[in-house]
């Protein structure tokens, strides 16, 4: 160990001891750099604070991303813009600026299965997290099942906050599973209580006129659509399933040839 390394190690441990969350390696590398280059005390403190701020921001983003339940997904730079026959790329790029979250507007991604609706919705969620907004992602079916499973009114109200409090709520896959009128009332409750205040992003394969088929017999469907659509940016994606197209492009795996039988020995 060199004569400089022991004091640096002590400083790193002292910084960690008073609550610095930056990795020990990053702190040690900077302190060694500051010593060798004779960086002044004021600049050293400023750069240490910048290192710590970046570490805390990264930790905070990771924690909020886990809480948002976005799951694994591809980043927006991997979206194949050339695949859809129709998509409003300019509108999506404007939405990534997140003015719609600040204004409490809604977003609807509409198109058949496999065209990237969930990927784009999650990209908006990640952008919002990076800007410091709170986000919650769920399939619509899972969210409604979660609320319907609550056995008492106090438990229901506590769980409902999970879908009312985030700055951005993403509800995926409306229209893929039928729901009863009670589920429709729950969704209307969420939409109406967030109306003109907090944003919702939904993905669906249905037009607004077809939402009644998801909630047969529900009296609130017209009011639900009216509330959600009032301040809503709509992105229609016209494309074949990206997944199916790329699966078809792959050469199918061939079954291994059966082993040859040995010919019988001649007498």
In short:
With 267 residues, the chain is an alpha/beta fold. The protein has helices at residues 5-17, 24-36, 41-68, 89-95, 99-103, 117-130, 140-148, 153-164, 181-194, 211-214, 221-230, 242-249; strands at 106-110, 135-139, 168-174, 199-204, 232-236. It folds into two domains: 5-62; 76-249, P-loop containing nucleotide triphosphate hydrolases (Rossmann fold), CATH 3.40.50.
Sheet-strand content, in percent, reads 5-15%
Report the CATH topology name of the largest domain.
Rossmann fold
- The low-confidence runs, each spanning 5 or more residues with pLDDT under 50, are 248-256, 262-267
Mean pLDDT: 88
Give the termini separation: 81 Å
The total strand number stands at 5
**What composes the largest sheet?**
5 strands, parallel
Describe this structure in words.
This protein is of the alpha/beta class. It contains 12 helices and 5 strands. Strands 2-3-4-1-5 form a 5-stranded parallel β-sheet, with helices on both faces. Strand 3, helix 9 (181-194) and strand 4 (199-204) form a beta-alpha-beta unit. The protein starts with a helix and ends in an 18-residue tail after the last helix.
């Amino acid at each position: 160990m060199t004569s400089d390394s022991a004091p640096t190690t002590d400083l790193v441990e002292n910084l960690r001891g008073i609550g610095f969350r930056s990795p020990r390696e990053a702190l040690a590398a900077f302190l060694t750099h500051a010593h060798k280059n004779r960086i002044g005390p004021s600049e050293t403190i400023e750069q240490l604070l910048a290192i710590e701020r970046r570490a805390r921001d990264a930790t905070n983003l990771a924690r909020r991303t886990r809480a948002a339940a976005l799951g694994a997904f591809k980043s927006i730079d991997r979206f194949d813009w050339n695949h859809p026959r129709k998509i409003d790329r300019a509108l999506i790029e404007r939405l990534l600026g997140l003015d719609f979250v600040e204004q409490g507007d809604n977003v609807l991604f509409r198109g058949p299965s496999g065209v990237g609706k969930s990927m784009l919705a999650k990209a908006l969620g990640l952008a919002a997290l990076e800007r410091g907004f709170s986000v919650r992602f769920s399939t619509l079916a899972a969210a409604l099942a979660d609320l319907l499973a609550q056995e008492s009114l106090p438990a229901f109200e506590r769980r409902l906050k999970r879908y009312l409090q985030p700055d951005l709520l993403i509800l995926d896959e409306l229209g893929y599973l039928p729901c009863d009128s009670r589920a429709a009332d729950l969704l209307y409750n969420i939409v109406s209580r967030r109306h003109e205040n907090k944003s919702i992003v939904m993905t669906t394969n249905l037009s607004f006129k077809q939402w009644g088929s998801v909630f047969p017999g529900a009296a609130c469907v017209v009011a639900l659509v009216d509330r959600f659509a009032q301040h809503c940016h709509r992105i229609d994606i016209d494309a074949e399933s990206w997944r199916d197209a790329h699966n078809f492009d792959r050469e199918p795996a061939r079954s291994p040839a059966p082993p040859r039988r040995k010919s019988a020995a001649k007498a």
